[in-house]
Design brief:
The structure holds two protein chains of two kinds. Chain A contains 52 helices and seven strands. Chain A is mainly alpha-helical. In chain A, the strands form three sheets. Chain A has a three-stranded antiparallel sheet with strand order 5-7-6. Classes of the chains: A mainly alpha, B alpha+beta. Chain A: It is found in: Endomembrane system. Chain A: Subunit of novel type of clathrin- or non-clathrin-associated protein coat involved in targeting proteins from the trans-Golgi network (TGN) to the endosomal-lysosomal system.
Chain lengths: ~1050, ~170
């Protein structure tokens, strides 16, 4: 133990690069890694904070120690704890002359501080000095810090030096200076506006890296102001050409592509410059065509460039040849098995569809596959595409799909988005009013709390105003259907508040209008609502207002009103409500019940919610009363200002005096074209019988001025919608195949026979030809893509036939390309299964032989074992040891991979070194049991799914072995070690076992560049009295 | 612009997190947790892209890649190409692989400052600065060489420095 500590300290002293931290730090990392709960982790970190606080107060801390403390602070902050007590030390460290310390200081401050932090002031000076340093690394570190720490006010302090650095001899510095300047530009464009020419100059830099870096700021600049960079079009094109012709140094190649990231940036810029510019588009078309030809679509990065080309083509002026190439590329993407490429394909399709709408047709089945894919990202992207291609012919299918998906997800953010899209599409393309109401009902039912309140007002207004031109009959039918649907839904538990408001309002207005439902039935339902949602005052308010309307209509029509007992009790409860609004409503209702039919009718006339209310601003109806009063000796009214003598002008109207105090505030908000604006609010508390109270019948919630405003806005929007709906050709165009097929969804069918049969024809003609494609999907495809040109055809009544023909022609081309997605994709990534079968098929006896064989070989060669030759359980050790190596090849049963294993195989020395180091550093427990595997485990264990299929494989390999008992994942060695398991990745939740780092596990058969390894740990559980044998030795 | 780079392990512990716009610590933690909860609910063999407006504001995308015990995550806005970002992760990992030879999670934990040095060479102030892993390596090596030179005393045992030198 002591020894370990000294080694740790020794290492810490010489800290740099590698395992440069002290044992304390490693212990911290380790214990956090093993923490079983967040609370435990917090406790560990808090105690670490305590330690650091104390340490930092000590005088004369050695610099290297200090550096480690700073790193520990950074680490703590990464784990989400406040390390602000140490910020000042990080700042101090930036002043140090030692490069390492300085860099650490800069790293820490860039992670700790924001640009407006008080301590920045202390750093600016250092940065200025460092920017002038001879050592380019110091300059780089300072430039790095600038990006994060400089704000608008401090930019001028460093700007001249940064500009100077643009001509620095080192390309690394030039690059970073450009980026720093770019950052300044983002922060405060005005501060560097005079330096923008520098970016243009740097575009011609000798170093491709610098040139590539310059593209970032240029992209920003160009997207702000396209026109002043048109002259650069040819330069960008020629750069791109040179890049594709491999004129750049080899080091910029990435997966055999020449400087792909630069190409992508260039394409992005070209898309900006080329949009709407014929000249530029023509210059670009050549090089774009070349790119399509040259791009290697087998690599990820090649596809990235292809996608960028598609994007670029969709932005510049359309060129038929390029569009064709783009469509080809998209179809390749869509047919690929990779979800990433499908995603890009869908995205590209969404872009191209704006230019050539019929492009989606040939990919219909691929799109539907994506729609049904389990991958959420892909699904959402596909919905986005569908949203873009929605038209009146397919709106029903698309919106139905969207709603189904909306119901299935829990992510509120996306739910809101998709709900608003549903509403938007429904408003824009609704084929019929009933359908619209149904869709809205669904949206409200499942996402009612998430949609904008405007949508609800909108719906109420639609129902009130009716949809048809002058067809009262249709309107009342519609209202009846709305009422019926609401009566059905109302008993569902937990409806969203907004939906209940709509329901209450509609029931109040139209519940009894048709005479189908009795007043007592509707009022009973409304009472139930008020009861069930007693905590929601808004809903209650709506319900009471609705009750009031129902009773008013009853009274007005001369029927006797029986107030249900539950209504009576509701009213009584509300009379004593804490909410003044509810109280008022209850009192009003009570007062109304006592009035006669004539009075009631003038208060709440039947179906008058759409009528405009004329507001008498001058309160002229009071004139007679005032006159009378004055005549009988009352004083004329003197406004408050006049009374206090502060106001001289006399021609002020009484109501103006109300507005004056808040004049400044109200001025803009009340600027409404409608007369029904502000004065209403002040009228609210006028007693019931007065005529101005008519306004109440409009808005159940009378208090809100905002809603008044909103509804008037909505009205404006609706007018446009209404026009659309009013078109007589509507019914015939929308009755394409979709309607009939979706009947199952409960959508009423409106199809007239002629069109219906024409659209069903194509299906019957091609269905038998390709039975392998799910007819469901085909139908969906037909309904989604069926009417490609119906948007334009809307006006002509014969339009419905054209799309149908389009579908007839298609099938011939479709079947071939659509078979690919139907086939099960080759299970390339899951390598587990084949290996597993070979393992289980193995003969246990042969296995045993093999194991013994290799154990004798391995036992001899294993030099680590030699160290522990006097250890008691050596035999066990070697067996397990060799078992593992045996396992690695036997489980594969594949000579080829075995070879690859040996060729790439264990670097014994390396593994030893590392293991020893790790052990010294205290990752492992202080007492290391005999079971040492240091030399063998860095073998690339051939089984790629080892930790997933581990149980099976272990069982298969070890079951015949005498000394080993296996209990599922854990491997028990009789008498000595109760449990043993290996685990990739260091974090184990139940850290009761002893842990030991054994090396890395490659995890896959072939090692590509840019591979990541698993850390392998070994866990075991010891018998209570078992002592570990050898003392720790350093190799 | 790149908004954030994160490396999380499969347990949700951040191994490296860098935000290119200032975020208070609590916000950072919230985002890390949010990202992790999204990532760990993703099944295997699905795309590496995510739209993540709910966490990072409008027009935010996320690209992630799962290597052994680590998730590499890039968050960026619409001005970057998703596939290219995926390859940027690959560049980063390739560089780390060269840097540490057979890189694994422990290397990242214990070489915190070096990780940042590598990352700073690749992404600078939210923009992609360098994408050739050879160039990045060159820069990082130069830094460590100079750092070593500026460090006058070295008490590191030979075996260790040999290991570190790789």
């Amino acid at each position: 133990m002591e020894q370990l500590k000294t080694i740790g300290r020794e290492l810490a002293m010489g800290s740099q690069g590698g395992f440069g931290q002290s044992k304390e730090f490693l212990d911290l990392v380790k214990s956090i890694g093993e923490a079983r709960s967040k609370a435990e982790e917090d406790r560990i970190v808090l105690s670490e904070i305590d330690i650091l606080k104390r340490r930092l107060l000590e005088p004369d801390i050695p610099k290297r120690k200090m550096k480690e403390y700073i790193i520990r602070l950074v680490y703590i902050e990464m784990l989400g704890h406040d390390a602000s007590f140490g910020y000042i030390h990080a700042v101090k460290m930036t002043h140090d002359d030692n490069l390492l310390l300085k860099r650490t200081g800069y790293l820490a401050v860039t992670l700790f501080l924001n640009e407006d932090h008080d301590l920045i002031i202390l750093i600016v000076n250092t940065i200025q000095k460092d920017l002038r340093s001879d050592n380019f690394l110091v300059v780089c570190a300072a430039l790095n810090a600038i990006c994060r720490l400089i704000n608008e006010e401090t930019i001028p302090a460093v700007l001249p030096q940064v500009v100077e650095l643009l001509n620095h001899q080192k390309e690394a510095v030039r690059k970073k200076a450009i980026m720093a300047l770019h950052r300044f530009h983002r922060k405060s464009p005005s501060s560097v506006s005079h330096l923008i020419t520098n970016f243009r100059k740097r575009l011609c830099d000798n170093d491709p890296g610098v040139m590539g870096a310059t593209l970032c700021p240029l992209f920003d600049l160009i997207s702000e102001d396209v026109s002043s960079y048109k002259d650069l079009v040819s330069s960008f094109v020629s750069i791109l050409k040179q890049v594709t012709e491999r004129r750049l140094p080899k080091s910029y190649d990435y997966h055999q592509m020449p400087a792909p990231f630069i190409q992508i940036k260039l394409l992005k810029i070209m898309a900006l410059l080329g949009s709407g510019d014929k000249n530029a588009s023509e210059i670009m078309s050549m090089v774009l065509g070349d790119l399509f030809r040259k791009c290697d679509s087998s690599t990820n990065i090649g596809n990235a460039i292809l996608y960028e080309c598609i994007r670029c083509i969709s932005c510049i002026l359309p060129n038929p040849k390029l569009l064709e190439a783009a469509a080809d590329a998209i179809s390749k993407f869509l047919k690929s098995d990779s979800h990433n490429l499908k995603y890009m394909g869908i995205d590209g399709l969404g872009r191209l569809i704006k230019i050539s709408p019929d492009i989606a047709e040939q990919h219909q089945l691929a799109v539907i596959d994506c729609l049904e894919d389990p991958d959420d990202t892909l699904k959402r992207k596909t919905f986005e595409l569908l949203y873009k291609m929605t038209k009146s012919s397919n709106v029903e299918v698309i919106v139905d799909r969207m709603i189904d998906y909306m119901i299935s997800i829990n992510d509120n953010h996306y739910k809101t988005e998709i709900a608003s899209r549903c509403v938007e599409l429904a408003e824009q393309f609704a084929p019929s009013n009933q359908w619209f109401i149904q869709i809205m009902n669904k949206v409200f039912e499942h996402a009612g709390d998430l949609v904008n309140i405007k949508v609800a007002h909108n719906l109420m207004r639609l129902i009130a105003e009716g949809f048809g031109e002058d067809d009262d009959d249709a309107d009342s039918k519609l209202r009846l259907s709305a009422v019926e649907s609401y009566l059905q839904l109302i008993s569902e538990p937990k409806l969203p508040s907004l939906f209940l408001q709509v329901i209450s309002w509609v029931l109040g207005e139209y519940g009894t209008a048709d005479g189908k439902y009795s007043a007592s039935y509707i009022s009973g339902k409304l009472c139930d609502v008020a009861d069930a949602y007693s905590s929601d005052e808004t809903v209650k308010g709506y319900a009471v207002s609705a009750l009031m309307k129902i009773y008013a209509f009853e009274i007005a029509s001369g029927r006797k009103v029986d107030v249900l007992p539950e209504c009576q009790s509701l009213i009584e409860e509300l009379l004593a409500s804490h909410s003044t609004d509810l109280q008022q409503r209850a009192y009003e209702l009570q007062a109304l019940l006592a009035l006669d039919a004539r009075a009631v009718e003038s208060i709440l006339p039947l179906d008058a919610s759409c009528e405009d209310i004329e507001v008498d601003k001058d309160l002229s109806f009071l004139n007679g009363y005032i006159q009378q009063a004055i005549e009988s000796g009352a004083q004329p009214y003197i406004s408050e200002r006049e009374r206090s003598g502060m106001f001289e002008t006399t021609d002020y109207h009484p109501q103006d005096h109300h507005e004056v105090p808040s004049h400044a505030l109200r001025f803009e908000a009340y600027e409404l074209p409608k007369p029904s604006g502000p004065p209403q609010a002040s009228n609210e508390l006028v007693p019931v019988p007065e005529p101005s109270y008519y306004s109440e019948s409009h808005q159940p919630i009378s208090t809100s001025l905002v809603s008044e405003r909103e509804s008037s806005e909505i009205k404006l929007r609706l007018d446009g919608v209404k026009q659309k709906w009013g078109r007589p050709s509507y019914q015939s165009t929308t009755s394409s195949s979709s309607t009939t097929q979706q009947a199952a969804n409960g959508t009423p069918t409106y199809s007239d026979a002629g069109v219906g049969s024409s659209s069903s024809k194509p299906r019957s003609s091609y269905e038998p030809k390709k039975p392998e494609i799910d007819p469901e999907k085909q139908r969906l495809a037909a309904s989604l893509f069926g009417g490609p040109s119906s948007r334009t055809d809307k006006k002509s009544s014969s339009g419905g036939h054209k799309p149908a023909k389009g579908t007839v022609n298609k099938p011939a081309a479709v079947p071939k390309e659509n078979q690919t997605p139907v086939q099960p994709p080759p299970d390339l990534l899951d390598l587990g299964e084949p290996t597993a079968t070979t393992v289980t098929a193995m003969d246990p006896f042969k296995e045993l032989e093999g194991l013994l064989d290799s154990s004798s070989q391995d036992g001899g060669s294993s030099d680590v074992m030699g160290l522990y030759s006097d250890a008691a359980p050596v035999t066990t050790t070697t067996s397990v040891d060799s078992l593992l190596s045996e396992l690695s090849d036997s489980s594969k049963g594949n000579p080829r991979t075995y070879q690859s294993q040996t060729s790439k195989g264990p670097n014994t020395k390396e593994a030893l070194e590392k293991d020893a180091l790790v052990r010294q550093m205290g990752v492992n427990p202080t007492s290391v049991p005999v079971l040492d595997m240091g030399s063998t485990v860095d073998v690339r264990w051939g089984s790629p799914t080892f930790h997933k299929m581990g149980n099976e494989k272990f069982k298969a390999a070890f079951s015949s072995f005498n000394d080993v008992k296996l209990s599922m994942c854990n491997l028990a060695i009789r008498n000595r070690i109760r449990k043993l398991c290996f685990r990739a990745g260091g974090n184990r939740r139940d850290s009761e076992g002893v842990k030991r780092y054994v090396g890395k596990w490659c995890g896959s058969e072939e090692k590509n560049p840019g591979h990541f390894n698993y850390d392998m740990y070994m866990y075991w559980d010891e018998e209570p009295n078992w002592k570990s044998v050898p003392p720790l030795k350093t190799p | 612009m790149i908004k954030a780079v994160m490396m999380l392990n499969t347990q949700g512990k951040p191994r490296l997190a860098k935000f290119y716009d200032y975020m208070p610590v609590e916000k950072q933690q919230e985002l890390i947790r949010g990202v992790f909860s999204v990532l760990c609910s993703r099944p295997e063999n699905v795309s590496n892209f995510l739209e993540i407006d709910s966490l990072f504001g409008p027009d935010s995308r996320l690209v992630y890649k799962h290597y052994a015990t680590l998730y590499f995550v890039l968050v960026f806005d619409g001005s970057e190409n998703e596939l290219a970002m995926l390859d940027l992760i690959q560049v980063l990992v390739e560089t780390l692989d060269k840097c540490f030879s057979n890189v694994c999670e422990l290397d990242i934990v214990f070489n915190y400052s070096k990780m940042h040095a590598v990352l700073d060479e690749i992404v600078f102030g939210g923009q992609v600065l360098e994408t050739s892993s050879a160039e990045v390596m060159k820069a990082v090596e130069e830094i460590s060489k100079l750092e070593a030179a500026s460090n006058s005393i070295s008490l590191v045992p030979k075996s260790v420095s040999g290991w570190r030198g790789r």
